[in-house]
Amino acid sequence: MSGAETTEAEAQAQNQANGNRTRSRSHLDNTIAIRLMPLPVRNQVCAHLDALDVWKQLATAANLYPDQVEQINTQRQRGRSASNEFLNIWGGQYNHTVQTLFALFKKLKLHNAMRIIKDYVSEDLHRYIPRSVPTISDLRAPVDPSARVDNGPPFPSSSGVSNSNNNRTSSKAEEIPSLESLGNIHISTVERAAESLLKIDYSELEMATDRWCPENRLGQGGFGDVYRGEWKQLDVAIKVMNYSNPNMDQKQVELQQSYNELKYLNSIRHDNILALYGYSINGEKPCLVYQLMKGGSLESRLRAHKSQPPLPALTWHQRFSISVGTARGIYFLHTARNIPLIHGDIKPANILLDQCLQPKIGDFGLVREGPKSINAVMQVKKKFGTRVYLPPEFRNSNQLSTGVDVYSYGIVLLEVFTGRQVTDRLPKNDLKQDLLVYVKQHSKHNRVELLDKHVATPMGEELDMCMCAIDVGVNCTAQDPQDRLSMEDVLDRFRPFRNYY
Ligand SMILES: Nc1ncnc2c1ncn2[C@@H]1O[C@H](COP(=O)(O)OP(=O)(O)OP(=O)(O)O)[C@@H](O)[C@H]1O
What we know:
The protein has helices spanning about 5-20, 40-50, 55-60, 65-75, 80-95, 100-105, 110-115, 185-195, 200-210, 250-265, 300, 315-335, 390-395, 400-420, 435-445, 460-475, 485-495; strands spanning about 180, 185, 200, 215-220, 225-230, 235-240, 275-280, 285-290, 295, 340, 350-355, 360, 370, 380, 400. The chain is globular. The termini are far apart. The longest helix has 20 residues, at about 250-265. It is of the alpha+beta class. Strands 3-7-8-6-5-4 form a six-stranded mixed beta sheet, with helices on both faces. A three-stranded antiparallel beta sheet has the order 9-11-12. Strands 1-2 form a two-stranded antiparallel sheet. It has three domains: about 35-130, Death Domain, Fas (Orthogonal Bundle), CATH 1.10.533; about 185-290, Phosphorylase Kinase, domain 1 (2-Layer Sandwich); about 295-495, Transferase(Phosphotransferase), domain 1 (Orthogonal Bundle). The chain contains 17 helices and 15 strands. About 40% of the residues lie in helices and about 10% in strands. β11 (about 350-355) and β12 form a beta hairpin. The protein binds adenosine-5'-triphosphate (ATP). Adenosine-5'-triphosphate binds near residues 220, 222, 362 and 363.
């Protein structure tokens, strides 16, 4: 061992004896302190880490005290950035440097985070950043717990972050778990999310779809194609992930969405929530396998009269039953756990129908944990979802609450019963009106006129039921979230018509 190495090893031993918490800046590290990092860079790195939701891994690797971890969690639940709070504590109280942070990112294989701060560490450390951006093909490698990761040359011990993973002869107890990357979302995280899900062999899915025969292609979404297939005597829909977006930030968002789908869709079982059967990651592309919804999406059914050959329009009865089932699914999401889950992208394209036209909510890519209680509001950094279905307080001020789903649901109800799309061009004399203004104006006087003309005008109790649906749609889409119904209120309002569902 050279003299310099001995000094480094001694520094490391001393650091370990002191523990990460008391570690201060080493003489070998002359980079700036974390708290002096330029604000735009700090914001960028925090946004990136928050999107990956890795604050717990950071806190553990940095050996924070439980009360500090709780402090970060509290800020997170208030809608603040968990990563920023982590930096406040670790970078502020212990005066760590950007180089130390770089070492921490390296330890956790947060390569994009390393890229963001690389200009603030010495150039010879840039060799620790993998040259190529991790690709989805990383997923193909089966996780072998016994495999060691070759992280290249050891990171200087002055980093203040223990680096046992670099020591290929280190004992198992010291090892950092072997992690393959899905972008920056570790495969171990993905696997944990998918623990109770079936892991399906890719070759079985090839067989199920006749080798991805074009005739079995159901459609295309933001992530790639969806195929119909028969797998183990089950009718399934297989979403083939094709992370084609060349933009790295966008790609990261896509990866995060697939992870959300696994994490949340897998943890929720309800008659009106799409069943996720399993996933496959040992083939050409990662796949998610769902229950096949033979009735297609509500969106396509609402336009059925335009399809070739045209399908009969949905009856009022069917429309009502679909609306009730969808409301039940959203109500479950909002109330099943201590913290409400907010779907964030309720729209007809994400409501799928089975052969009996029972609805199931799909596309959990944007699901978020909301504020602690069903009536509370939290400020979030980023907007997400489909603009025309989002309420003004979320679109304009990033205020997230269960009211976001209620509003989107209200728009869906109005679309279902008027037969108009929220994006439809309105007749000439209504040019300045969007669907909501149009419905709100007409609902005062000529309410029956609002109903979809593709179906015979309802009479008697059926008419009352349709008017109730329009009223509920109007109440769900109030501009002020305080004036909106809750999903429980919606179901109460529908109860007098239970003969129809
Ligand atoms: N489980 C399923 N059963 C039957 N059809 C499905 C199923 N899942 C998706 N589809 C169909 O496959 C197509 C693509 O679906 P996907 O969820 O990927 O995209 P999307 O929701 O339309 O778009 P995005 O993902 O960008 O929001 C849609 O036409 C949808 O109706």
